Amino acid sequence: MTRTHPDSGDRPAPHDHPDQHARHGQGEILDRDAEVLAEINADIVRWLPRQAAPRQILDLGCGTGAGTLALLDRFPEAHVTAVDASVEHLQRLREKASARGVAARVSTVQADLDDLSWPHLGTPELAWASAALHHLVDPDRALRRVHDVLAPGGLLAVVELAGFPRFLPEDAPEDRPGLEERCHAATERDLAEHLPHRGADWGPKLVAAGFAVEGERTITVNIEASGRAGVGAYALAALQRLRHRVADLLPPEDLTALDRLLDADGPHSIARRHDLAVRTERRVWAARRGANT
Ligand SMILES: C[S@@+](CC[C@H](N)C(=O)[O-])C[C@H]1O[C@@H](n2cnc3c(N)ncnc32)[C@H](O)[C@@H]1O
Fold first, then answer.
1. Quick check: CB of 131 below 6 Å from ligand 1?
2. Residue of 158, 102, 118, 101 lying closest to 135 (CA atoms)
3. Which atom of ligand 1 is nearest to the CA of 113?
4. How close is the Cα of 81 to the center of ligand 1, in Å?
């Protein structure tokens, strides 16, 4: 485990993490998601119940910083400790923080949250875990750890996705309608095996870890490409990554249709479509550590 600070100049050495392969190509998707869903993240942060503005915040499984940057925007006095297993994601997060002029308010910590012991992470009043807990082998143990790390009375926000976003209309593409759904269906068995906590109800897990759940909400997202820059690029990056996963699982006709969509110069390129949208769902839980626990 290595702690780095944006000003320190030292960088953690790459290490082999079991999830490393799964993260290949993930950075770009996280950046695209952060760009297109920036307002949604800001809205979730605004919605959180709180007592006083937090000074120390923890972003667990921070990725390339979607949550970290939204939290820094919302709480201008706060410092965020951003934790992730991926050296590359943390590097990207530091670059983004520098570009926004907030690097001095972020520390990055490379750590595996499945490890039995965590590095010292301060005593945050607010912890944030977005699309991260379902990646852990033992998220219940991690939740108990977050409970102990938080300041008494501190808040944990858990944000999770019902599944991967969809981009194409259900009847697309014209020659192979329903292709996107079939791609996701093909990966389902593998995902269920490798990410068994995906789609869990985190409410009871939070209570079992000692938290009191103060708020819960579901946000349905439907952002049409016509209104937003970045949707096409997000769709392309996400379907390119999906292509790697389904290469050996799809019938050849579907794979050919997918390749036509991913051919940036071709007439059927996804980049030429005007009917794209980001359709997804975010579930949020706000959970408090008791003042005397
Ligand atoms: C889907 S991404 C979410 C990133 C970010 N929170 C966001 O909302 O954009 C999941 C993140 O969890 C990290 N992760 C997965 N397993 C982890 C582990 N055992 N310890 C620390 N980080 C982990 C991944 O590297 C990745 O950055």
1. yes
2. 158
3. 20
4. 14
Rounded to whole angstroms, the Cα distance separating 191 from 289 reads: 32
| Residue 130 belongs to some domain of the structure | yes
Residue with tokens 């300041």: 151
Of ligand 1's listed atoms, the one at least distance from the Cα of 137 is 19
Please indicate, yes or no, if residue 255 is contained in any of the structural domains.
Answer: no
What is the mean pLDDT of each successive set of 10 residues along the chain, which is 293 residues long?
34 36 74 95 95 95 98 98 98 98 98 97 98 98 98 98 92 96 94 94 98 97 83 93 94 96 91 92 97 83
Q: Is 72 part of any domain? A: yes
pLDDT at 229: 76
Instruction: For a ligand 1 pocket test, name from 3, 16, 19, 115 the mutation site with the most ligand atoms within 8 angstroms of its C-beta.
Output: 19
85 lines ligand 1 (CB under 6 A): yes
Tokens in use for 124?
A: 């945050």
- Total structural domains within the chain: 1
Asked if residue 230 is part of any domain, the answer here is: no
Q: What is the pLDDT of residue 88?
A: 97
CATH number of the domain within which 28 lies: 3.40.50.150
Range of the domain at 12: 2-164+193-223+279-288
User: What ranges in 24-86 are assigned the alpha helix state H?
Assistant: 26-36, 38-47, 66-74
- Does ligand 1 come within 6 angstroms of the Cβ of 157? no
135 lines ligand 1 (CB under 6 A): yes
Distance CA 245, CA 182 (A): 12
Structural contact between residues 74 and 42, judged by C-beta atoms closer than 8 angstroms: yes
